[in-house]
UniProtKB/TrEMBL annotation:
GO biological process: branched-chain amino acid catabolic process; response to nutrient
Annotated Transketolase-like pyrimidine-binding domain residues: 48-223
Name this polypeptide is given: 3-methyl-2-oxobutanoate dehydrogenase (2-methylpropanoyl-transferring)
Gene from which this protein is expressed: LOC127780882
Enzyme class: oxidoreductase
E.C. designation(s): 1.2.4.4
């Protein structure tokens, strides 16, 4: 069975919210083990949601490398989003364990563990709470290799964290802090859009010889459902993916925003506008060549993300593409992003970059 489009994933999720609940008991064990029928990419697969795909990746990482460890707040019993369900029972409390509620301590311990040649897979329970660990990530992990002249490194470090809107999180459980880490040389920043992408990109991140910050769109943990190969596989980092071909305008996004952008593309097509949609996947170092080639063809660019517009990573994309494609651009680069306010609760629908906001920006850019 071929992979579903983002819209098909979204429709399936909306139609099956009741049955796509958090697994328990034998169902959880089966999901974690990936027992299934069907064929995807030459291997057996089944339709799973995003948190189950993450769980599969962590099982494989621990199973294939005895020096890998998973730790963080509450991961021992499965975590608040159930991404680590079954790991401690299978691999033991010495390799999958809870930490104190101290993000700075989690990151500092992870740096040290990775520096000793291990694979440290640390979880920050919500991306909103990664800021106490900022010093350890930015001043230690990112600079470890550079300051030692490549004699030492902590390249086996991966920090996972749920990010973005969840529908009811408010200002302490909905933030998108990716731009903070994109500013830091020495880190890689990865954000998947779907279960298949999440599994392949997470395994690639864990095995990458550089420290990686891996943000998971919590909105999609249960809603995004896709057929995912059971086997061990990796997807390339720093390679964007063109997931919809078009000729009139290029749209760039990552994470949960891709589903919003695809809906806007489909509505734009009804008005005769052909949109090319690109999932950046890796934000740092990002695939400028793929984006440049697309914009050179369409002459127009729109970037959309949930984070506030000022200083968001969309600004870096806009500046870089303006430098590279200035003579080929037919309109200013458009950005449809979150607002420059704390993330609201009651007014979340006004804050979010919705399909209609994107569609209006598409039409304004094309008709510029």
């Amino acid at each position: 069975m071929a992979a579903k489009s983002l819209r098909e994933i979204r429709i399936a999720a909306a139609a099956g919210i009741g049955r796509r609940r958090c697994f328990s008991g034998d169902a959880a064990a089966a999901a974690a083990a990936g027992v299934a029928e069907g064929k995807v990419g030459g291997g057996a697969g089944k339709e799973v949601n995003l948190f189950t795909a993450i769980n599969q990746a962590l099982h494989i990482a621990l199973d294939t490398d005895p020096r890998s460890y998973v730790f963080g707040e509450d991961v021992g019993f499965g975590g608040v989003f159930r991404c680590t369900t079954g790991l401690a029972d299978r691999f033991g409390r010495n390799r999958v364990f809870n930490t104190p509620l101290c993000e700075q301590g989690i990151a500092g311990f992870a740096v040290g563990l990775a520096a000793m040649g291990n694979r440290a897979i640390a979880e920050i329970q919500f991306a909103d709470y990664i800021f106490p660990a900022f010093d350890q990530i930015v001043n230690e992990a990112a600079k470890f290799r550079y300051r030692s002249g490549n004699e030492f490194n902590c390249g086996g470090l991966t920090i996972r964290s749920p990010y973005g809107a969840v529908g009811h999180g408010g200002h302490y459980h909905s933030q998108s802090p990716e731009a903070f880490f994109c500013h830091v040389p020495g880190l890689k920043v990865i954000i998947p859009r779907s279960p298949r992408e999440a599994k392949g990109l997470l395994l690639a991140s864990i095995r990458d010889p550089n420290p990686v910050v891996f943000f998971e769109p919590k909105w999609l943990y249960r809603l995004a459902v896709e057929e995912v190969p059971e086997e061990d596989y990796m997807l390339p980092l720093s390679e964007a993916e063109v997931i919809r071909k078009g000729s009139d305008i290029t749209l760039i996004g990552w994470g949960a925003q891709l589903a919003v952008l695809e809906e806007a593309c489909e509505d734009a097509a009804k008005d005769g506008i052909s949109c090319e949609l690109i999932d950046l996947r890796t934000l740092i170092p990002w695939d400028k060549e793929t984006v440049e080639a697309s914009v050179s063809k369409t002459g127009k660019l729109l970037v959309s993300h949930e984070a506030p517009i000022t200083g968001g990573f969309g600004a870096e994309i806009a500046a870089s593409i303006t430098e590279r494609c200035f003579q080929r651009l037919e309109a200013p680069v458009a950005r449809v992003c979150g607002l420059d306010t704390p993330f609201p609760l009651v007014y979340e629908t006004f804050y979010m970059p919705t399909k209609n906001k994107v569609l209006d920006a598409i039409k304004a850019t094309v008709n510029y």
